[in-house]
């Protein structure tokens, strides 16, 4: 049975052992920065070239849902940080409680994301054969606000005048939207899986003030995923709100 | 390092600051500032990211070599963005419209 909290032979002190774990985690996160960085680079260039289409695409996103998700995710970072603190001071029940809260908030974030993706499918905004940027304006649902539909029609006709290839260029926006939020959501799912494991370990009393490295390392990962969203939110939802 | 434990109060203060900055970024997006909208949005996001890295991720209390890795990550990202953009924005073809930009020498 693998024991926890003991000093391995290659380290001089427990402190050095812990620092090495953190250093390794940060090196991994540096590779993650570049992993997401490639997508951010692609986003930057395409937004530079197809600003009109990106603005139109961005305005179809639901700012209320996106904003709510931002609050949920930052709150989950707070509960994660609190569970790291609780494990440091040896409060076992609180460690577990904060981990459960983080998992619940993370799952809520993914749930909201599902609602958002569903809307995009309903409005024919998923890149591919059936993509149609003005689908919602042409086929409004019975409960859609007529004023809002009028405003959307007007915005679209202006955008088509500026960029006749709007339908093609808007697909670039939505490809990046699904690609970037999808990769982010995948990281959340992996994080949620690790949280389940952490909660189990915490319940059986694995973590003590001298041994809480897993809580801290998975905490670093969780905060990193939060940071990615901190950039995704303004870049995807807030391109052209001041029309 | 002697292990530094950040008190929960500090975490709550950071959380509230992040909430205020989120509200600020949404508010700023509704004001037409031309090219400065994106500058402000990225500046606010970077302040938020820095707060998360320094306090939630304990970078402020980490040893120098860990801090060096964090700086390297940002620096590598900056290299990728800067060098790629220096290529694309100096091309003699406008890739959006696929037309030749006049007044530049073709390589």
Topology:
The complex is a heterodimer of chains A (about 240) and B (about 110).
Chain A: H1 14-49, H2 51-59, H3 63-88, H4 92-122, H5 135-138, H6 146-162, H7 166-203, H8 213-237
Helix pairs in contact in A: 1-2, 1-7, 1-8, 2-7, 3-4, 3-8, 4-7, 7-8
Chain B: H1 8-29, H2 36-56, H3 64-88, E1 93-94, E2 99-100
Antiparallel strand pairs in B: 1-2
* Secondary structure tally: strands of chain A: 0
Largest sheet of chain B: 2 strands, antiparallel
Largest sheet of chain A, if any?
Answer: none
Q: Which spans of chain B of ≥5 residues are poorly predicted at pLDDT below 50?
A: none
The helix count of chain A comes to 8
Helix content, binned percent of chain A: over 70%
The percent range for helix content of chain B is: 55-70%
* Residue fraction in strands of chain B: under 5%
How do the helices and strands follow one another from N- to C-terminus of chain B?
Answer: HHHEE
For the largest sheet of chain B, list the strands in their spatial order. Answer: 1-2
What is the average per-residue confidence, as pLDDT of chain A, rounded to a whole number?
94
H and E order of chain A: HHHHHHHH
What global shape of chain A is seen?
elongated
- Principal-axis shape of chain B: flat
Mean pLDDT of chain B: 88
Q: What is the total number of structural domains of chain B?
A: 2
Secondary-structure content class of chain A: mainly alpha
For the record, give the distance between the C-alpha atoms at the N and C termini of chain A, rounded to a whole number.
62 Å
């Amino acid at each position: 049975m693998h024991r926890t909290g003991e000093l391995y032979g290659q380290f001089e002190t427990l402190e050095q052992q812990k620092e090495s774990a953190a250093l390794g985690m940060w090196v991994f996160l540096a590779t993650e920065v570049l992993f997401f960085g490639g997508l951010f680079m692609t986003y930057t260039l395409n937004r530079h070239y197809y600003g009109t289409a990106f603005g139109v695409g961005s305005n179809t996103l639901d700012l209320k849902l996106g904003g709510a998700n931002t609050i949920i995710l930052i709150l989950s970072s707070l509960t994660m940080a609190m569970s790291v603190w609780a494990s440091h001071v040896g409060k076992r029940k609180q460690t577990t409680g904060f981990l459960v809260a983080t998992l619940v908030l993370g799952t809520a974030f993914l749930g909201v994301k599902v609602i958002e993706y569903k809307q995009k499918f309903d409005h024919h905004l998923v890149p591919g054969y059936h993509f149609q940027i003005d689908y919602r304006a042409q086929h409004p649902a019975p409960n859609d606000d007529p004023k809002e539909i009028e405003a959307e029609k007007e915005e679209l006709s202006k955008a088509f005048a500026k960029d006749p290839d709007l339908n093609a260029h808007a697909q670039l926006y939505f490809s990046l939207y699904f690609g970037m939020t999808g990769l982010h959501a995948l990281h959340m799912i992996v994080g949620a899986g690790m949280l389940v494991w952490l909660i189990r370990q915490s319940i059986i009393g694995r973590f003590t003030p001298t041994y809480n490295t897993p809580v801290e390392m998975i905490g670093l990962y969780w905060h990193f995923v939060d940071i990615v969203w901190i950039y995704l939110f303004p870049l995807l939802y807030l391109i052209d709100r001041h029309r | 390092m002697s292990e530094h434990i950040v008190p929960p109060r500090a975490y709550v203060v950071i959380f509230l600051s992040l909430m205020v900055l989120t509200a600020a970024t949404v508010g700023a997006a509704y004001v037409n500032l031309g090219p400065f909208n994106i500058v402000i949005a990225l500046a606010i996001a970077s302040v938020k990211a820095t707060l998360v890295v320094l306090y939630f991720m304990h970078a402020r209390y980490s040893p120098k070599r860990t801090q060096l890795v964090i700086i390297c990550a940002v620096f590598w990202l900056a290299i990728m963005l800067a060098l790629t953009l220096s290529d694309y924005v100096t091309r003699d073809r406008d890739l959006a419209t696929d037309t030749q930009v006049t007044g530049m020498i073709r390589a």
